[in-house]
From TrEMBL:
Residues 1-20 are annotated as: Disordered. GO terms for molecular function: heme binding; iron ion binding; monooxygenase activity; oxidoreductase activity, acting on paired donors, with incorporation or reduction of molecular oxygen. Keywords: Heme, Iron, Metal-binding, Monooxygenase, Oxidoreductase. Belongs to the cytochrome P450 family. This is Cytochrome P450. InterPro entries: Cyt_P450, Cyt_P450_B, Cyt_P450_CS, Cyt_P450_sf.
């Protein structure tokens, strides 16, 4: 055996030794969803950081402390997706890595500083707590219209008829896109998460994605030529570390903002309503004590259901953290979902306690890449939830009709959640008419301007 072969064998032996303890868990399998609680408890007790031999091999972090210590180490972690192979060849935040179909980065979530930092600085004024306050009347009115469409019938699908629509319309409003186009984006954004490539429906989903992509590029060019307030206008005019983003980079950022704005809030809302239907005493308590309970209940639903299950990273330099030896180029998965069930931090972790105190969950991530839309998500969720409690207080979800995502390796979502309730009275105009009105409000009041320019709440009076 020559020297080079000998060195290779030594490296393999060394890798095998340091890649312990080892597990074999396919996060994209039904086992991950169906045995989640058992797996979480096992990993927390035996291997809070482990080498997972699936999908090419990567480190899997499930412990709360271990994840906290790793996620904040931007000095040794990279989110970069090196599409052109001109840097270090890193593969972004997806594990398994993206297929050859995707030739753009997933927005600033697949960038490292300083680019990532410039993007967040540019977009924060549109998504801050103060900025979100200005949008609450719009969120309330869209939610009211969605419920009005079903209130007289006594039947609703909380996914199709509410939780899909409200976040979609609001996200387009924030972007500065036509609100009526929400349905161009809604189905493909959700379906691209839950439809596997071997599904007979995959080709249809691809066609929907293509239609959505063409529409998005046309919108980018339209706003570039005829500026209108919103996140897209900021993206086409901002300077990022000395350069102007091209259309494909902006496209990637928009997919990140739309995907994050749509599917995660939908998932949280659907799961929470399903649980409240299963626990009517807790539903009545939450409605009765909402002034003191709504905030803690929201954080507890976020912890328990963790819509975005985790993110990938690449180790950017050799290091040892809490006794685990990482090598440059190693892949790492940060399991926000499992860390949120760590019994060392959360008493009775597999049970929802609406009044849980000191809820240090990681559902919006940690460190420099923490979710930029967390304020929007919380506000939208609370408004949808409270309006359902007020107008459909006795709702009962149909377990036979509820359809969860087959796998939850990316988003812990639902496709359908039908329910029945005692019919009530409409309070206003229907959805289409309301969306048209909200478009006029957005345009005339320039609602999508950043909070540094516009601080007032939307006014909906005719």
């Amino acid at each position: 055996m020559d020297t080079e072969e000998s060195r290779t064998e030594e490296n393999r032996a060394g890798d095998a030794e340091r890649r312990k303890p080892a597990i074999s868990l396919d996060r994209l399998s039904s086992r991950y969803r169906l045995e989640f609680e058992e797996l979480s408890t096992e990993f927390h007790g035996k291997c809070p950081v482990a080498w997972n031999d699936t999908h090419g091999g990567y480190w899997f972090t499930s412990g709360h402390k271990e994840l906290f210590d790793l996620a904040r180490r931007a000095d040794v972690l990279s989110n970069d997706f090196d599409v052109e192979g001109v840097r270090r060849g890193y593969q972004g935040i997806s594990i398994p890595s993206p297929t050859g179909e995707r030739r753009f980065r997933g927005g600033f979530l697949e960038m490292d500083p300083p680019e990532q930092r410039y993007y967040r600085q540019a977009l924060n004024p549109y998504l801050s707590p103060a900025a979100v306050q200005g949008w609450k009347p719009v969120i309330e009115e869209i939610t009211r219209a969605c419920l009005d469409e079903k209130i007289e019938s006594g039947r609703i699908d909380f996914v199709d008829d509410l939780a899909n629509i409200v976040p979609a319309v609001l996200t387009l409003a924030l972007l500065g896109m036509p609100l009526k186009d929400w349905d161009v984006y809604c189905e493909p954004i959700h379906a691209m998460v839950y439809t596997p490539m071997d599904s007979p429906l995959y080709e249809r989903v691809r066609e929907l994605q293509m239609t959505m992509g063409v529409h998005m590029m046309e919108t980018i060019n339209g706003i570039r030529n005829n500026p209108r307030p919103g996140l897209i206008d900021e993206l086409v005019t901002c300077e990022i570390n000395g350069y102007r983003p091209d259309d494909m980079e902006i496209f990637g950022v928009l997919l990140l903002l739309i995907g994050g704005g749509f599917d995660t809030t939908t998932a949280l809302t659907a799961h929470s309503l399903e649980w409240l239907s299963e626990h009517p005493d807790q539903r009545e308590r939450l409605s009765r004590e909402r002034e003191t309970l709504l905030d803690s209940a929201t954080e507890e639903f976020l912890r328990f259901y963790t819509p975005a299950q985790g993110d990938g990273r690449t180790i950017s330099q050799d290091c040892v953290i809490n006794g685990t030896e990482f090598k440059e180029g190693d892949r790492l998965w940060l399991s926000w979902a499992m860390a949120n069930r760590d019994e060392k931090v959360f008493e009775d972790p597999h049970t929802i306690h609406l009044d849980r105190k000191g809820n240090r969950h990681n559902s919006f991530g940690l460190g420099i890449h923490r979710c930029i839309g967390s304020n929007v998500a919380r506000a939208t969720f609370k408004i949808m939830l409270t309006q359902v409690l007020d107008r459909m207080p006795d709702f009962v979800c149909d377990p036979a009709g509820a359809v969860h995502y087959d796998t939850t390796g990316v988003i812990n979502g639902m496709k359908h959640l039908p329910a029945t309730f005692t019919p009530g009275k409409r309070l206003g105009a229907g959805l289409d008419e309301t969306i048209a009105k909200m478009q006029r409000v957005c345009d005339e009041q320039r609602l999508a301007e950043p909070v540094t320019v516009r601080k007032a709440r939307a006014k909906l009076d005719d």
